[in-house]
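Whether sequence alone determines local backbone shape is best considered at the level of individual chains. We regard such an encoding as a compact summary of how the chain folds. The sequence in question and its structure tokens are set out directly beneath this paragraph.
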Amino acid sequence: MKTETKLMLGVYDCIFKAIMLDPNNRDYLKEMIHYITEIPLFELENIEIKNTEHIINNKKDKKMKSDIIVDIKNKTINIEMNKDYYEGLFSKNDAYLEKLLVNLYNESEDYIERKRIIQINFDNFNYFKQNKEIYKFVYKDEESNIELPENPIKYHIDLDYIYKKCYNKPVVNLSKFERYCLLLKAETKEFANTISGDDRIMKKVTEKLSELNQDEKMIGLYDAEKEAEKIRRTQIKSARNDGIQEGINQNNLKIAKKMLDEGIDINVIERV
């Protein structure tokens, strides 16, 4: 039996950024943005990769670094990979968005010429439960649905839904966007090759994934990210268990007090 070649998953930050920021995969980045935002490809021709470390405006500011920030003509696009959902994740993404807004306001000479902010979130989990591939969020009036002009736009891509929906389908029945997303979830080189087919852009991404799989530095970053994830999950589980035990202790205390109020012998209460 032929052994399949394992790949490091593109939903991990280090692999995601290595793929998206590779100059050889610039067409993949541009087409992803195009399919999600419907920005014409000709507008994405002169895309510019920006520094992802946000400016610290005062001593109370936290040091923050986005995954990817790109500039095109009159737009700044922030791209984030959300591998796992946790409480506060969307607030963190909002903080990146707010940082970009503040910095652009500070850089602009007036409020007319400032760039429009767009954030794209690749979610490796099914949070919204609506069986959609792409969610678009804007500020709008609740009753009339009128959108505020020039307001920030947030997109969420449900990678988990796309993967479950498309995994067993023949490649010919998948859209190009679905195949692009599946590459980020490819666990083996064989699966990535099947998804890529003869597509030039996807074949380059598959080659990059294979190349990263041999890079010792990238393997170290990947392992470190997996270990950090394991530690975080352990801490969450431990905190949850501590909370459950504290709840049990508090409940037992209430029951004991009620038993005392009913005049039950304290020795009996201790045994219970």
The CA atoms of residues 10 and 74 lie 29 Å apart. The mean pLDDT is 84. The first strand starts at residue 48 and ends at 49.
